[in-house]
Amino acid sequence: MTAEPGYSDAAGWALFLDFDGTLVDIAERPEAVVVQPGLRNTLTDLQQRLGGALAIVTGRTITDVDGLLPDLGLDICGLHGLELRVGSHMSRPAGLAELGPEIAALRTRLAGYPGVVVEDKRVGVAVHWRMAPEAAGEAAAAAAELALRLGPGYRLQDGKAVREIVPAHAGKGGGVRALMAYPPYLGRKPAFVGDDRTDEDGFAAVNALGGLSVKIGQGATAAAHRIASPAAFRDWLAAWMDRPPATSLDRAARENV
User: Fold this and answer.
1) To 10 degrees, the CA torsion angle through 193, 174, 156, 127?
2) Does 18 participate in catalysis according to the annotation?
3) I need a surface site. Which of 13, 37, 51, 147 has the fewest CB within 10 A?
């Protein structure tokens, strides 16, 4: 790492972190991700340094993240902005239909491809083909056809070996903007770190707010800065916590490119 990350300006920042592909390495199945030793302590310490202004912004549900980071009680924006927990405040849009029968039918259609994973998000669904790249066309088509049947209240979004159906108003950018209205985020400068196409909405939001956007890995992006991998980002976070104040968060990101 070429940067000497510091926290001299930590009080002025609000930090929003994607989960899969950012804090943890992507796994073949969503439930198979591994939370590396030390990450929990890093997040706890970082939350304290930031005066509580740290949130996970993810396509996973809040319940799912809590299961992977138990007892931390972090602020979480789940389901691409649909769920929100800030301290003791919980919110979720009313009237979202659960897609149980549709998800069951999708699983039946794709049952002939054992490497395809249909992830039930209750009000949405993600179809993963990382373990069955030969099924990418069929899996993507099946998701597209279901989205068409569901109508204009839903949309498709593509990621790394995944196609997801989400309510049309879902988006990580909206989640970031919603979080910025709550203390301790209010009045701070936002930073968003993510790795996938689903994170581009978050990058656009913080760029518009004059904040810091950082992409993990390769690929075209609206993010202003880039870090090579989740492992490198975890090291960067730990270094930012463990060393004396040296450089600001935005300068550290620039130097890490």
Assistant:
1) 50
2) yes
3) 37
DSSP string, 81-142: GTEEEETTEEE--TTPPP-HHHHHHHHHHTTT-TT-EEEE-SS-EEEE-TT-GGGHHHHHHH
Residue bearing tokens 């916590």: 241
What average pLDDT does this structure show over 144-156? 96
CA–CA dist 174, 54 (Å, integer): 16
Give 167's strand partners: 154
pTM assigned to the model? 0.89
- The DSSP symbol for 247 reads B
Q: Are residues 251 and 175 both part of a single domain?
A: yes
Catalytic residue among 9, 18, 66, 195: 18
Tokens of 63: 């319940």
Beta strands in the chain (DSSP E): 13-17, 54-57, 75-78, 83-86, 89-91, 117-120, 125-128, 154-159, 162-167, 189-194, 212-216, 225-227
Rg of the chain over Cα atoms, rounded to whole angstroms, equals 18
Tokens of 209: 């707010």
Residues 149 and 89 in one domain: no
Reported as a pLDDT band with limits 50, 70 and 90, residue 7 is very low
Same domain, 89 and 14: yes
Contacts of 134 (CB under 8 A, 6+ apart): none
Dist. CA 50–CA 37, nearest whole Å = 21
